[in-house]
Design brief:
The complex is a heterodimer.
Chain A: E1 8-11, H1 13-24, E2 28-32, H2 42-47, E3 52-54, H3 59-71, E4 75-81, H4 82-88, H5 90-97, E5 105-109, H6 126-131, E6 137-139, H7 144-156, E7 161-164, E8 169-172, E9 184-187, E10 192-196, H8 200-209, E11 215-219, E12 222-224, H9 228-235, E13 240-248, H10 253-263, E14 269-275, H11 285-291, H12 296-303
Parallel strand pairs in A: 2-3, 2-4, 4-5, 5-7, 6-7, 10-11, 10-13, 13-14
Antiparallel strand pairs in A: 1-8, 6-12, 9-11
Helix pairs in contact in A: 1-7, 3-5, 8-12
Chain B: H1 2-27, E1 29-30, H2 32-37, H3 39-49, E2 56-59, H4 65-74, H5 80-83, H6 114-127, E3 134-139, H7 146-157, E4 163-169, E5 172-173, E6 176-177, H8 178-181, H9 187-193, E7 197-202, H10 206-218, E8 224-229, H11 237-240, E9 248-249, H12 252-262
Parallel strand pairs in B: 2-3, 3-4, 4-8, 7-8
Antiparallel strand pairs in B: 1-9, 5-6
The chains are: A alpha/beta, B alpha/beta.
Chain lengths: ~300, ~260
């Protein structure tokens, strides 16, 4: 059975979420490191030029400036690509935005293998890095609805937040009406247990279509803090669960689920599907997924 | 103004030095060289220049926290008894404290990051329409971190005339003399090239520091950089000539003698 899954698209949901936030809260400022055209922040920059800071190609400096703005009472949202937000500016995110009491929000585009640029632009380790930072909330949205909800979630949070972004035309799986960002069973009743985060939700749904109603799917947008109760209650129903994520199998969803299950002493085996321990190939998303057996057929074959 | 203030500031600086030595004596170790070298600058900042609840001081060089703690003691923020737990297990008087420790605006100490946050604060204060000034202290060694120059570029680009960078020109770093490890000079020329009004200051002369702060306030349309030459260990002759003054670990009698030398 499929629950509340739609198939539509939304234009630039992050741009809309930022604009609405900017109109509602005068303390919100946005920073870009020479990627404003490619991260859906231009509408905010045009409407609120005083509250938009172009820092040039300097991500470390951007995180520091964001930290300084936070200390003068603003809520900074630093926006760039995932690889640069994490590998390039990891220490700065940690020191300037995460030791508190002030805080910032980082929104990181080109998640996982959604770019043809191979290792230079594929953020396959960002969730692992951000999950390791004390107090950091980590969100990998599946669609436009979750991305918009993640922005609101981050604003309401107490500490620093890392959100994976999606730009331009973004698929919509979930009905935005009264939507709450939380772990939810998207497919129920099947004996094959799947768990997804981010784009992995779409991939798992595609695989499920090849599994003749035999798949269940728990989708988990918030990787940290993980809803351990929801994950473990779900896992208790299966001998094996399979995690599906647009990220390395090290340190992301698969690791988080393994930690949760092992932490409770549960016998459920965790099979992790994602980017294996090598650099993913260059090319289109479809091509990379096929090469990594993360296309519908590859996932279905792995769990069948 | 400086003629009246100088004697008092000299006493303030002396008291900062005495507090620094007492703090190190507790555990027998600490960043005494920096504390002694920077005492005159901090006396001028905390007892002449900074306007309470208006201006901001950003300590990028977390390792020099001892100087700030000692200055804040004279402002009544910390009791001497607590300061003497400097660096001890469980004490909040940490050798390189985090944001949120009273008087510490940022988490410094991961070197090379403070100026970026100072730039953010200067932008934030300007956006709020306040006349607050932001002062940032970074060491000469921190100029080797690329991020410092990213921040300088941004400060010049945004013409942040509410920002003053002090370069702690103590000419030493963890592995030895700055000039030997990685030469950072000519710092005044480099800052000027990045759009700063920059000049050198004798940071062990209260008159010179006060004059430089007056000069900095007069600069319009660009940030200010003051390259603060100072002698690590200043005021304690045996420390002034000590080669390992970057971090001093010594038995109690050495600290007792240092206090006598300071007078």
């Amino acid at each position: 059975m499929t629950v509340a899954v739609q198939s539509a698209t939304v234009d630039a949901p992050f741009a809309t979420a930022l604009l609405e936030l900017g109109r509602r809260r005068e303390d919100v400022v946005v920073l870009s490191a020479d990627l404003s055209k490619y991260t859906d922040v231009l509408p905010f920059a045009e409407e609120f030029p005083d509250r938009f800071f172009q820092v040039g190609m300097a991500e470390a400096n951007m995180m520091g400036i964001a930290g300084g703005l936070a200390k003068t009472g603003f809520l900074p949202i630093a926006v760039t690509y995932g690889v640069f937000a994490t590998r390039r500016a990891y220490d700065q995110v940690a020191m300037a935005l995460s030791t508190g009491p002030s805080r910032g929000i980082v929104v990181a585009f080109l998640p996982g293998i959604t770019t043809p640029f191979k290792a230079t632009h594929q953020a396959i380790d960002d969730l692992a890095l951000m999950r390791a930072l004390p107090g950091m909330t980590v969100i990998d949205p599946a669609d436009a609805t979750e991305l918009s909800a993640a922005v609101e979630f981050a604003v309401a949070a107490a500490g620093p937040v890392y959100i994976r972004g999606m730009r331009a035309v973004v698929p919509r799986l979930f009905d935005p009406a009264r939507f709450e960002l939380r772990a939810r069973e998207v497919l129920t009743g099947g004996e094959i247990g799947l768990i997804s985060t981010g784009l992995g939700c779409q991939w798992a749904l595609e695989a499920a279509e090849l599994l003749d109603g035999r798949a269940s799917l728990l989708h988990v947008p918030v990787l940290k803090p993980l809803d351990v109760d929801a994950v473990c209650t779900y896992c208790a129903r299966f001998d094996v669960v399979t995690t599906v994520e647009n990220h390395s199998i090290a340190g992301g969803l698969g690791t988080a689920v393994s930690e949760a299950v092992a932490g409770r002493g549960m016998p459920t085996r965790v099979r992790r599907l994602g980017v294996p321990d090598r650099w993913a190939p260059a090319g289109s998303l479809d091509y990379i997924r096929r090469e990594l057996a993360l296309d519908a057929a590859g996932i279905a074959e792995a769990v069948r | 103004m400086s003629a009246v203030a100088t004697p008092s500031l000299t006493e303030r600086a002396h008291e900062i030095r005495r507090t620094v030595l007492l703090m190190c004596r507790g555990r027998g170790q600490g960043y005494a060289g920096q504390g002694l070298g920077l005492a005159d600058l901090f006396a001028c900042l905390y007892f002449s220049e900074l306007r309470a609840s208006v201006d901001r001081f950003v300590l990028s060089t977390g390792h020099s926290a001892i100087t700030l703690f000692a200055a804040l003691h004279q402002q009544g923020v910390y009791e001497l008894e607590e300061l003497c737990t400097y660096g001890m297990d469980g004490s909040r008087i940490e050798e390189s404290p985090l944001e949120g420790t009273p008087g510490f605006e940022i988490t410094g100490g991961s070197l090379g990051q403070g100026l970026s946050q100072a730039v953010g604060m200067a932008l934030g204060e300007r956006l709020r329409g306040r006349d607050s000034r932001v002062y940032c202290l970074a060491s000469d060694g921190e100029l080797q971190e690329g991020q410092t120059w990213e921040a300088c570029m941004a400060a010049g680009h945004h013409k942040l005339d509410n920002l003053v960078l002090f370069v702690d020109d103590n000419r030493m770093q963890a592995d030895g003399a700055t000039a030997d490890v990685m030469n950072v000079e000519p710092v005044v020329d480099k800052l000027s090239a990045f759009g700063f009004a920059a000049r050198r200051v004798d940071a062990n002369s209260i008159d010179d520091v006060l004059a430089a702060l007056d000069w900095a306030r007069e600069q319009k349309g660009r940030p200010c950089g003051l390259v603060c030459s100072n002698l690590p260990g200043k005021g304690v002759p045996s420390f002034e000539v000590y080669a390992k003054v970057h971090y001093i670990r010594a038995p109690d009698d050495v600290w007792a003698r240092a206090l006598e030398e300071l007078g």
